[in-house]
Amino acid sequence: MNPPAQAFLPFALPEIGEAEIAEVVDTLRSGWITTGPKARRFEADFSAFLGDATLQSIAVNSATAGLHLALEGLGIGPGDEVITTTHTFTATAEVVRYLGADVKLVDIDPTTLCLDLNQVEAAIGARSKAIIPVHYGGLAVDMPALLALARRHGLKVVEDAAHALPSTHGGRLVGTFDSDATVFSFYANKTMTTGEGGMLVTRDAQLAERARVMRLHGISRDAFDRFTAKTPSWAYEIVAPGFKYNLTDIAAALGIHQLQRARGFQRRRAGIAAQYDAGLAGLPLLTPPQPRPGDCHAWHLYAIRLTEQAGIGRERFIEAMYERGIGCSVHYIPLHLHPYWRARYALRPEQFPHSQRAYEGLVSLPIYTRMSDADVERVLEAVRALLQA
Q1: What Cα–Cα distance (Å) separates residue 26 from each residue in 30, 84, 254, 292?
Q2: Long-range CB contacts for residues 307-310, cutoff 8 Å, separation at least 24
Q3: What is the reported pLDDT for 227?
């Protein structure tokens, strides 16, 4: 008799507990389901989590929205240029184009897969106005070095921290450095989730106020303020042509409790990463870079790189893992390979040798908190079977 087939092990799954469910139910019963008291609480909790009273947190419906609001609030516009890595999801760069500015892509450090600061400095020109570093996979960029570079050249810094809660560099949490803004993602597969959502964090009071206004149509007062004040007022003013970027209380209800579990989630992800590190030793692949001693890696991704000695191409490897009931992914197809970015800036793979070479062997293995040790071992057995054949 054949043994029962194993259930498919997906690339990612969120972990939603009873506390999150109860908070959402409470929100639904409250009658206030759009941006309101739960979003305010989530924002306050997030600033408290970062442990810096000077920081303001603005909840938005995606990290893409947060990046757009940050750049808009900093005055980025036509004629300007923003430097970022080619090795990222398109959202990092597309927000620059929303504002009519141009993107300058640079290569990555071949070890960390984060943007190469030497490449950043070489790319700075007369039109350069800002840098967007990406904390790839949850490994923090060397922010003190990047900020020093930015200060030398008078550039703004907006951190794309979509992967990086709760990453640290030099013992300091991403989000607490002296950047102009940091933006986190709470998409379904991130280290904590609100389904869709993000958080813009800044010490700049003017930027924070601008983001709050622009996230909801450029209205001078939030609906929650207008309808819950001691003297409710239907009156409002449109002070700018804003956007529809607010986070609902339903989503914030999830975030309140996900945030309380964020450090526990990180510990579990780190445990899975350690299990992978040990189980993949000696195979023809590169495992992800480790954080500096004493620092925290968020482990949003566990991205291996197949070497030429693997004896199997990346595409066939992913297909074979799927045939074994295991989902994998690739992070990322670099921007220089996508038709829009390639055509707009006449980009060629040889301009980005480290990103190109990494991409050609990259495979992201499943890593999420609901995985059991047996699930991790199942992934390892499949990888070993393919690479030791």
Answers
A1: 6, 41, 11, 42
A2: 307/361, 308/284, 309/284, 310/284, 310/285, 310/361, 310/387
A3: 62
From start to end of the chain, where are the E strands? Answer: 56-60, 81-85, 102-106, 128-132, 156-160, 168-169, 172-173, 181-185, 198-202, 285-286, 302-306, 362-365
CB 16 within 8 A of CB 226: no
The domains of the chain are located at: 18-260, 262-387
Helix, strand and coil in the chain, % to nearest 5: 40, 15, 40
- Residue 203 is encoded by which pair of tokens? 């010490």
Which of these, 276, 333, 301, lies nearest to 139 by C-alpha position? 301
- The residues annotated as belonging to the active site are 190
| 316: Cβ contacts below 8 Å, ≥ 6 apart | none
> 5: buried, middle or exposed (CB in 10 Å: 19+, 13-18, 0-12)?
exposed
Element (H, E) at 288: none
Tell me the two tokens of residue 356.
């190109």
Query: What pLDDT sits at residue 319?
Result: 98
Q: Coil, strand or helix: which one is 273? A: helix
**Could you report the per-residue pLDDT of 229-252, keeping only the tens digit for each?**
566 677 889 999 999 999 999 999
CATH 3.40.640.10 fits 18-260, yes or no: yes
Please name the residue that has the structure tokens 């030791």.
388
Asked whether 61 and 245 are in contact (CB, 8 A), the reply is yes
User: Two tokens at 237?
Assistant: 């003013």
Distance in angstroms (rounded) separating the CA atoms of residues 247 and 59: 6
SS3 161: coil
Q: What are 192's two structure tokens?
A: 């904590």
Q: Which residues pair with 364 in a beta bridge?
A: 303, 329
d(CA 237, CA 251) in angstroms, rounded, equals 27
- The DSSP-derived string for 92-158 is HHHHHHHTT-EEEEE-B-TTT-SBPHHHHHHH--TTEEEEE-B-GGGPPP-HHHHHHHHHHHT-EEE
What superfamily would CATH give domain 262-387?
Aspartate Aminotransferase, domain 1 (3.90.1150.10)
Comparing C-alpha atoms, which of 134, 138, 251 is closest to residue 187? 251
Q: What's the count of helices (H) and strands (E) in the chain, helices before strands?
A: 14, 12
The per-residue pLDDT for range 10-37, each reduced to its tens digit, is: 999 999 999 999 999 999 999 999 999 9
Residue 72 burial (C-beta neighbours within 10 Å; 0-12, 13-18, 19+): buried
